[in-house]
Design a protein that fits this description.
heterodimer; A: mainly alpha; MetI-like fold; 13 helices; globular; B: 287 residues; mainly alpha; 15 helices; 78% helix
């Protein structure tokens, strides 16, 4: 591949802006992240393995991944219904409902964390009914999954909305006029068209859930082996001055987020190839 | 959201109403209740306690640090956003896709991991720790660390909004301006910037909201020193852990209002932008 720079442009400032952006990203984002492999390379394999695969750490992976998966699944199902309703039907309060969807993005995570804990604790507005039904939400893995459902809510809705808006209703009408039932039309015509965006939204919600900290720590209760998420464990190791252990565990999380970022990019590429850019 | 398309009224179709019911219930349980809970818990012990909680000296110094942090992080990321959008949107070069992907990186890194990165660089045992200690410079458990992690987590916001806006703009108008003898800077200020101003406003609003609300990353580097390295989100955590629930929710309500203001400002900016686009179309048509 031949390198090429600033081909056929009379506009000025290319060198300056590219140089500045690269230096800024390099110093403030890449250099800090490069510190993890450096720290991990100082450990021998046994120490590294102990830091990233001890039973307590494995339990935290199970909880983090499981709860993020549960939250992303809940969002895939209810987010699809919500996006459908918001783009297809007129009903009182539709605009307000649409505006509300961004709340998890706008609310600081610490605020979401204490609000969710208050709601789902034993005396909370929702918790008391769950308690009566014999379900404990706060300070259990269920609470973690609920917090991650909250935090991932906008992703599926906001990825699906533009696709649903662009989907030609004539396609559905044609299917309907050819005698396909509503459910059949949905699953054979609409759903396949939505699938790439739905998967992208799901992956975004999952990725966010895996790294989430603020909205989870309050409702989780943070009992080792039971309700301790991986992000918190990183912080615990740091507070015990186990810098190398914290770095090793952070490296594992970082690699996982790179993989998820790659998957999301592939899904987005698939999604735009399916429909063309904004078409 | 769905402009330019007639929406079906729900009518009497029971399936439609069922779907609407499911969506509304979902949004109510997951979004409306937590939001309402913040304000009701904040005022649970009366307006006097509320007022005392948000005018407490620790709360005020946390507020000041939060404003200061946003005041440092937002302008820096704004300049970065303009620079990176300019080179990405107006030029073609090798490695562009990589650069654009890297911009989003801070979004996919856990905030705790981001905070830890700076501790491992600048903390006592960190890479530059001994050098910093020898020169009596404190970054971790001090205000500069808070600035650094906040910049890190808010890097993508302005750039993400500006890149597509500048790409949509093309380069014809700038080329014309340059050809007519305008300087590079003048072209940028008079041609490029007005065309992307709503994207810029939008990006700054989102960047600011996150800068003021960041919790995880800041919590790692702050050291939670009251009156010195506490931001508002950290003050919420401390009060909550001390079982001062009314006070915690009072401070939280300020952050909530800030977040809601960001959402309202954003939808206003979007509406203005749409109106302007409509006016521009009307003007072209009437020519």
């Amino acid at each position: 591949m031949r390198l090429h720079f600033a081909r056929a442009s009379v506009l000025p400032g290319f060198g300056l802006t590219l140089g500045y952006s690269t230096a800024y990203m390099g110093l403030l984002v890449l250099l800090p992240l490069a510190v993890f492999p450096l720290w991990a390379s100082r450990m021998d394999f046994g120490q590294f393995w102990q830091a990233v695969a001890s039973p307590r750490v494995m339990a935290s992976y199970r909880l983090t991944l499981g709860a993020a998966l549960a939250g992303a699944l809940a969002n895939a199902v209810f987010g699809l219904v919500t996006a459908w309703v918001l783009t297809r039907y007129e009903f009182p309060g539709r605009r307000l409902a649409d505006a509300l969807v961004d709340i998890p993005f706008a609310l600081p995570t610490a605020v979401s964390g204490i609000a969710l804990t208050a709601l789902y604790s034993k005396n909370g507005w929702i918790g008391r009914y769950l308690e009566a039904a014999g379900i404990q939400a706060a300070y259990t893995p269920l609470g973690v999954a609920l917090a991650l459902t909250f935090i991932g809510l906008p992703f599926v809705v906001r990825t699906l909305q533009p696709i649903l808006e662009d989907l030609d209703p004539e396609l559905e009408e044609a299917a309907g006029s050819l005698g396909a039932g509503k459910l059949r039309t949905f699953f054979r015509v609409v759903f396949p068209a939505l699938l790439p965006a739905l998967l992208t939204g799901f992956a975004l919600a999952f990725a966010r859930g895996v790294g989430e900290y603020g909205s989870v720590v309050f409702i989780a209760g943070n009992k080792p082996m039971h309700t301790e998420i991986t992000s918190l464990l990183v912080l615990t190791k740091l507070e015990q001055y186990d810098y190398a252990g914290a770095a090793a565990l952070a490296l594992v999380m970082l690699i996982l987020s790179f993989i998820l970022l790659l998957v999301i990019n592939i899904l987005q590429w698939w999604s735009t190839r399916h429909f063309g850019e904004g078409a | 959201m769905a402009q330019g398309r007639r929406l079906a009224s729900a009518g009497s179709d029971p399936v439609r109403w069922l779907l609407i019911g499911v969506a509304v219930l979902f949004l109510t349980v997951f979004l409306v209740l937590p939001l309402a809970c913040v304000f009701i818990e904040a005022l649970a012990r009366g307006p006097a306690v509320y007022w005392r909680s948000i005018t407490d000296s620790d709360a005020l110094s946390a507020m000041l640090l939060t404003l200061l942090t946003a005041g440092v992080a937002v302008p820096l990321n704004l300049v970065f956003g303009l620079a990176v959008a300019w080179c990405v949107a107006k030029f073609s070069f090798s490695g562009k896709t990589l650069l654009v992907t890297l911009i989003d990186l801070p979004f996919s890194v856990s905030p705790v991991v981001a905070g830890l990165a700076f501790v491992l660089l600048f903390g006592m045992q960190g890479l530059f720790g001994p050098w910093l200690a020898a020169h009596d410079i404190r970054i971790i458990f001090a205000v500069p660390g808070i600035f650094l992690v906040t910049i890190f987590v808010t890097v993508p916001f302005v750039a993400r909004e500006l890149i597509p806006a500048m790409q949509a703009q093309g380069t014809d108008e700038e080329q014309a301006a340059l050809l007519l003898g305008a300087s590079g800077w003048r072209t940028f200020w008079r041609v490029t910037l007005p065309g992307v101003r709503w994207a810029l406003v939008y990006g700054v609003i989102l960047c600011n909201a996150r800068a003021m609300g960041e919790f995880g990353a800041v919590s790692v580097v702050s050291g939670h020193i009251r009156g010195q390295t506490n931001t508002l989100p950290l003050a919420v955590e401390i009060l909550y852990n001390e079982y001062q629930f009314a006070a915690a929710f009072s401070v939280a309500s300020l952050l909530t209002l800030l977040g809601l203001a960001a959402l309202v400002a954003r939808s206003l900016a979007e509406r203005l932008q749409r109106r302007q686009a409509a006016l521009a179309t009307a003007a072209t048509l009437s020519e």
